[in-house]
Design a protein that fits this description.
heterodimer; A: mainly alpha; 3 helical TM bundles of succinate and fumarate reductases; 5 helices; B: mainly alpha
């Protein structure tokens, strides 16, 4: 009786055929999983706000022209909003497409080519987008009616 | 299963759009005329319908993404995933219907 209830013999852990803890890459996949959820929730607010202000308020889609962009990006609030949205959306999309490439591209050479294209496109979008937001000059339009351009 | 497929397809669609959207918006750094001339080419019913489709993809991806977060982090999430799918469908209609009416009435009256 006592022999069976007091000290159950520990069952040795089964040898798994794959390593459950990754080697060499730290917790990269865990953090990318966390990032997808965190950035996704932030993007919901940033993107819905972006769509509402640009497409629902005012004259909707027809109002989009240089003067409209100048009006927004002469305000640091919208510069920071758009930069956050740019970085979070591009990294969120980058990580999503990276996952899709890993899932469907079976040859390692195909995966390498697709991921190289992906990294290149993400660098172009992030560098170009950030430069444009912060080096933008709303006053290059001679017809500008903005206060700061007078 | 199908919400997972739709999540992937809508995500890739939005990612491809983002690439084009950043490149064309970068024209504001070239000249007002360059940006305005490209924006003019977008102001037609075909692109207008495409914009509505894009917003539909964004709304679905956002709401279904919240559902994924709830399944992952909420203890009762996996049990209610089916009900939450219908909540996504209802939320989609509630958000997309007013947008589609507003946007398409502008697109088709210009």
């Amino acid at each position: 009786m006592t022999a069976t209830t007091s000290e159950p013999h520990a069952i040795p852990a089964k040898k798994s055929r794959y390593a459950r803890t990754s080697r060499g890459r730290g917790n990269f996949e865990l953090w990318s999983w966390v990032f997808m959820r965190g950035s996704g929730v932030l993007l919901l607010f940033l993107v819905f706000g972006h769509l509402f202000v640009n497409l629902m308020l005012g004259k909707g889609i027809t109002q989009i022209d240089f003067a409209f962009v100048a009006g927004k990006w002469s305000n640091p609030f919208w510069q920071v909003w758009d930069m956050l949205m740019l970085w979070l959306a591009e990294l969120h999309g980058f990580n999503g497409v990276r996952t899709i490439i890993n899932d469907y591209a079976e040859k390692s050479s195909t995966r390498w080519i697709l991921k190289t294209l992906l990294v290149a496109s993400a660098l172009v979008v992030l560098v170009l987008g950030t430069l444009v937001i912060f080096t933008f000059d709303p006053c290059i339009d001679p017809a500008s009616t903005l206060e700061q351009c007078k | 299963m199908w919400s997972w497929v739709a999540h992937r397809i809508s995500g890739v669609l939005i990612f491809l759009f983002l690439f084009a959207h950043v490149l064309d918006t970068a024209l504001v750094r070239v000249s007002p005329e360059a940006y305005n001339s490209i924006m003019e080419t977008y102001k037609n019913p075909v692109v207008g319908l495409g914009e509505a489709g894009l917003v539909a993809a964004v709304i679905f991806h956002a709401l279904n993404g919240l559902r994924v977060v709830a399944v992952d982090f909420w203890a009762k999430g996996p049990r209610y995933q089916r009900q939450m799918f219908w909540a996504v469908v209802i939320g989609f209609v509630v958000l997309f219907a007013p947008f589609a009416i507003r946007h398409l009435s502008i697109v088709f009256s210009h």
